[in-house]
Design the sequence.
């Protein structure tokens, strides 16, 4: 839910380009960081986790307009960098199938990618004092609340306003003119951010709890039968930290 | 969304649109998306949508089912549309853009095998990400198959009741087992790839860029969509 279910042509092109640019930089960083780490096993696990996210994102809870992302679980299982790559892959495939705009892939990857990175870091910190189930549940709720705020921040920052960036039905702006909220456009139409935030936080909170329960149960199961899977994400980073001669815990 | 079915439509079709090269269809989709992005009049979007609808029908694809899938993003646009001020025109434009862009993407994916699309994307993406696309798509079907089998066996043994909390725990465990099983299969398959000489990049055929006589259709549609959008403003 915490990614932009916005069709193509609504967010101004400059922000879309910035989204792709930052995502490209993050991907380059991710690829650099996973180059040496666990290379023989990374591809199958990446594929399975990304496919699991894909299934989660395709099964929507129609009543509240929510679908689970499983991005925190991806961060826990893959670590931050492979998790970010998984987020990009999932957004790319979803866009190919018409779910979410193809031009929004960059921004969406940043939002979902932030969930995998934050999820991995928060889970790693919480498991020092809490059991895996409780850690996973708390991680999901806190991470999704943060990433939803990030999504709202992006909408506020881009001053998203349908149609008007390229000259809306009542605008006489030329075709490729880009303006940040011209007064006229602002008066005509824009997304009421406060109202949008109310909707998103209210319905989103229900979804966060569902996703937290689900993730906690799955993590609890892995903790019992394959605890090595939960630690592996941390190990990928630890190996890289050692590679640069820094301390890894 | 039925990925397995979409895959079947793409591979099984024999229409002129199916036979056009992937390169032409990607170019057409890019132009169509460009047209959708710059469209500011719902009539232009309606014309593009109608053209896409007709092409799907001529390609002997289940148009209504595909249109329903294309309407899927609209479900998630509800909150966004409800928050939009500025009248019904803007709300209609949000839905029209979402549905038309989605239908354009679906025309590409239902008439082109994913292997060829991923091979084309592999030309611009790093090797790990390009291979990740293949691995994810393949894993998706492994997961679905394993999950369906496990859920059936749990139900047959009376282990699932929709409204019991215990069922939720069992479902999470089923998903956990599915994940582990799929991971085992994917790792075996990856080991086989290594045995067959995999060195960090899955080789893809260049069939996607072989142009042919059918390529005129997608190119004409893409250019036509841009022209219509520019005229109806």
Sequence:
């Amino acid at each position: 839910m915490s990614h932009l279910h916005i069709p193509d042509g609504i967010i101004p092109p400059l922000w879309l380009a910035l989204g792709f640019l930052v995502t490209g930089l993050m991907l380059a960083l991710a690829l650099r960081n996973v180059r040496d780490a666990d290379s023989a096993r990374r591809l199958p696990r990446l594929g399975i986790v990304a496919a699991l996210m894909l299934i989660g994102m395709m099964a929507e809870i129609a009543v509240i307009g929510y679908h689970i992302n499983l991005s925190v679980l991806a961060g826990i299982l893959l670590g931050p960098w492979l998790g970010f790559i998984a987020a990009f892959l999932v957004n790319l495939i979803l866009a190919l199938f018409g779910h979410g705009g193809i031009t929004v892939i960059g921004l969406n990857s940043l939002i979902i990618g932030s969930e995998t990175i934050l999820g991995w870091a928060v889970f790693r910190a919480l498991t020092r004092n809490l059991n895996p189930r409780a850690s996973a549940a708390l991680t999901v709720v806190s991470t999704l609340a943060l990433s939803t705020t990030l999504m709202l921040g992006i909408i506020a920052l881009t001053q998203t306003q349908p149609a008007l960036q390229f000259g809306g039905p009542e605008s006489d702006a030329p075709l490729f003119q880009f303006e940040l909220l011209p007064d006229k456009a602002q008066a005509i139409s824009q997304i009421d951010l406060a109202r949008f935030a109310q909707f998103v936080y209210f319905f989103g909170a229900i979804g966060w709890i569902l996703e937290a329960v689900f993730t906690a149960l799955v993590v609890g199961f892995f903790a019992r039968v394959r605890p090595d899977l939960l630690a592996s994400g941390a190990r990928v980073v630890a190996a890289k930290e050692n590679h640069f001669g820094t301390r890894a815990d | 969304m039925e990925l397995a079915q979409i895959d079947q439509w793409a591979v099984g079709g024999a229409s002129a649109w199916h036979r056009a090269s992937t390169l032409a269809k990607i170019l057409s989709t890019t132009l169509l998306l460009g047209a959708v992005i710059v469209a500011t009049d719902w009539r232009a979007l309606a014309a593009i949508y109608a053209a896409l609808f007709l092409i799907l029908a001529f390609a002997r694809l289940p148009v209504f089912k595909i249109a329903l899938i294309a309407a899927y993003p609209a479900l998630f646009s509800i909150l966004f549309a409800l928050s939009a001020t500025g009248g019904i025109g803007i709300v209609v434009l949000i839905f029209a853009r979402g549905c038309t862009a989605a239908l354009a993407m679906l025309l590409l994916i239902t008439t082109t095998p994913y292997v060829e699309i991923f091979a084309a994307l592999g030309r611009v993406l790093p090797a790990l990400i390009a291979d990740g696309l293949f691995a994810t798509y393949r894993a998706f079907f492994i997961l679905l198959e394993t999950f369906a089998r496990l859920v059936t066996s749990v139900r047959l043994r009376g282990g699932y009741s929709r409204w019991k909390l215990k069922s939720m725990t069992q479902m999470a465990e089923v998903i956990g087992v599915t994940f582990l099983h799929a991971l085992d299969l994917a790792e075996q398959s990856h080991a086989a790839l290594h045995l067959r000489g995999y060195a960090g990049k899955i080789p893809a055929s260049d069939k996607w860029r072989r142009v042919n006589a059918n390529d005129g259709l997608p190119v004409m549609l893409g250019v036509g969509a841009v022209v219509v959008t520019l005229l109806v403003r």
User: Anything to note?
Assistant: The mean pLDDT of chain B is 82.
